[in-house]
Amino acid sequence: MTPGMARPQRMRVGAPAVLAFGSNLGDRAATIRTALDSLRAEPGLRVEAVSRLYETPALKLDGIDEEAPAYLNAVARIDTVLDPLALLALVNRVEDALGRLRTERWGDRTIDIDIVDYDGIVSDDERVTLPHPRAHERAFVLVPWLDVDPEAVLTGYGRVAELAAQATDPVTPYSAESLDADGGDR
């Protein structure tokens, strides 16, 4: 190497992934923003695009619960050098830091972050199933996903736009603003 020249750096190539966020307790929008900010601060992960916020009724095991607080939902497209299990551990740490309690399956929560898709991988690992097992039928995941990738395809199920058109859960835009990849509202 010539003196004074910097050593070439090897670039690590990341994998694209899609994360879904939901919150129905506390300041829902602030919690989702804080979760995104926490992820943005992590090495090995880059938030590339974030949908606007959508409001949806709480969905429980036996259907929509009109008595439960409504959810705010968003989707982020990310690029990461973390493998799926490391990414799961990271999102679980973020959830825990934001007060997520895991006492009731499909219960109310301050924050829920799901790995919807990880580079098109199909996996039945007991800790992380890819793609997310119910994403193909959940408008609260599919509709925001279209904000960040109108041409998205969910491996094994098809085009996200077609899946969203078939989903029956009600999804309402919460605001016209989206949470951009730089951390502020557009």
Automatic annotation (TrEMBL):
UniProt pathway: Cofactor biosynthesis; tetrahydrofolate biosynthesis; 2-amino-4-hydroxy-6-hydroxymethyl-7,8-dihydropteridine diphosphate from 7,8-dihydroneopterin triphosphate: step 4/4
UniProt source species: Leifsonia aquatica
> Its Enzyme Commission number?
2.7.6.3
Q: Which UniProt keywords apply?
A: ATP-binding, Folate biosynthesis, Kinase, Nucleotide-binding, Transferase
GO MF annotation: an example: kinase activity
Q: Which NCBIfam families match?
A: folK
Its catalytic activity?
Answer: 6-hydroxymethyl-7,8-dihydropterin + ATP = (7,8-dihydropterin-6-yl)methyl diphosphate + AMP + H(+)
Task: Give the source's domain of life in one word.
Answer: Bacteria
Q: List the InterPro entries.
A: Hppk, Hppk_sf
What Pfam families does UniProt report for this protein, alphabetically?
A: HPPK (PF01288)
Please provide the Gene Ontology terms (biological process) for this protein: folic acid biosynthetic process; tetrahydrofolate biosynthetic process
Determine if Transferase is one of this entry's keywords.
yes
This one is known as: 2-amino-4-hydroxy-6-hydroxymethyldihydropteridine diphosphokinase
Q: Does the keyword Protein transport apply?
A: no
Q: Which residues form the 7,8-dihydro-6-hydroxymethylpterin-pyrophosphokinase domain?
A: 18-150
